[in-house]
Amino acid sequence: MKVKFLLAALSLCAVCTVKAQNPIIKHIFTADPAPIVHKGTVYLYTSHDTASVEATNYKMPDWHVFSSKDMVNWKDHGALLSPKTFSWATGDAYAAQCIERDGKFYWFVSTFHKNNAESKGGAAIGVAVADSPIGPFKDAIGKALVVNEMTKDLPHAWDDIDPTVLIDDDGQAYMYWGNGSLKWVKLKKNMIEMDGPITTLKPKNYIEGPWVYKRKDLYYLVYASAGTKPEMIEYCTATSPAGPWTYRGIIQENVPNSFTTHPGILDYKGKSYFFYHNGALPTGGSYRRSICVDYMYYNEDGTIQKIVQTKEGVAAVK
Ligand code: FUB
Predict the structure, then answer these.
(1) Structural domains in the chain?
(2) Nearest CA to ligand 1 atom 2
(3) Which ligand 1 atom lies nearest to the CA of residue 92?
(4) Closest alpha carbon to 276 in 1, 24, 21
(5) Pairing label, strands 199-201, 206-215
(6) Would you say the C-alpha torsion 191, 193, 196, 202 has a positive or negative sign?
(7) 4 falls in which pLDDT band (50, 70, 90)?
């Protein structure tokens, strides 16, 4: 009798473990996840795919913000920023990351520059700022922070995309970005000016989508890679944000139904989470992508275990 009761209780318990079910955002197509925690809430900054099913390129009009307190239920705060916010910008809203400093939220975005006196066009990086994680956001500079002409190591016009920003323990901020090669620069405390020269490097298999962060005494550079086609996620570690970076291997294999994928990493309520995108929603694909999240585990020596992509996703946390 007691055993029967125990089994019934256990199966009930299994049923009541609420899981997120990947992809976590289902009512629109989203890509390029960038999560942060602010006052106990997760804010997830995303790109937004609106290309038709037949399209063979991106159509990305704006950036959205979502929030969650349990990693399962996500509230869409809407399209809180678009290239139209920046008078100098035109074209698609590529990957972006928002980071807090001294109570202000700096949203570093990749988009494209108008052909004018400042640039002949091509990908560019801008910064929007707000007093809250959900805006209202305005152009923080009034011009681009990075234009195509500032980096000359690669000939293509879209190499200045995918900014990620790290603020080190001593307060020094670093921005990393790039398609085809990784570029990085120190930022001033105001977060809207460079504080030194741009350095360029080529981590093994690097393509785009860097995500740089510090955990314990180690700096991590996680990125979308050309390990095989389509993209995978690989990473390096270093003992300084300036490198040198040591290649550590593949974290995630290809994702279903999307050529690209893109990392976003977060520690929340005692667990580590790996955000990425795939093309798994019905009618999804490389230009109609969707954000997923699965658990991330570290080994004792700080190396990262392979991400297991799941359909059920992560469990709700209190
Ligand atoms: O979403 C547009 C581009 O695709 C991003 O900027 C890249 O990281 C890739 O995900």
Answers:
(1) 3-317 (2.115.10.20)
(2) 94
(3) 2
(4) 24
(5) unpaired
(6) positive
(7) low
Apex 99 CA angle, 19 and 147, nearest 5: 120
Q: What share of the chain is helix, strand, coil (3-state, %, to 5)?
A: 5, 45, 50
Atom of ligand 1 lying closest to residue 49 CA: 1
pLDDT for 2 equals 55
Position 11 pLDDT exceeds 60: no
9 Cα: distance to centroid of ligand 1 (angstroms): 46
pLDDT at residue number 69:
98
| Residue 229 structure tokens | 């086609």
Cα atoms found within 13 Å of the Cα of residue 26, Cβ hemisphere only = 9
Average pLDDT over residues 90-115: 98
Contact criterion met (CB below 8 Å) for 80 and 66: no
Average pLDDT over residues 285-300: 98
How far is the centre of ligand 1, averaged over its atoms, from the C-alpha of 256 (Å)?
16
207, 231 in Cβ contact below 8 A?
yes
Q: What is the pLDDT of residue 229?
A: 81
**Ligand 1 proximal residues by C-beta, below 6 Å:** 31-32, 47, 58, 94-95, 110, 161-162, 208-209, 224, 260, 262
Cα 85 to middle of ligand 1, angstroms: 20
| Amino acid letter, 49 | D
**Model confidence pLDDT, tens digit, residues 139-191:** 999 999 999 999 999 999 999 999 999 999 999 999 999 999 999 999 999 99
DSSP labels, 195-259 = -S--EEE--TTEEEEEEEEEETTEEEEEEEE-SSSS-EEEEEEESSTT-PPEEEEEEE---TT-S
> Ligand 1: which of 49, 257, 262 to mutate, most ligand atoms within 8 Å of CB?
262
**Please, what's the b/e burial string for 48-61 (b: 16 or more CB within 10 A of its CB; e: otherwise)?**
bbebeeeeeebebe
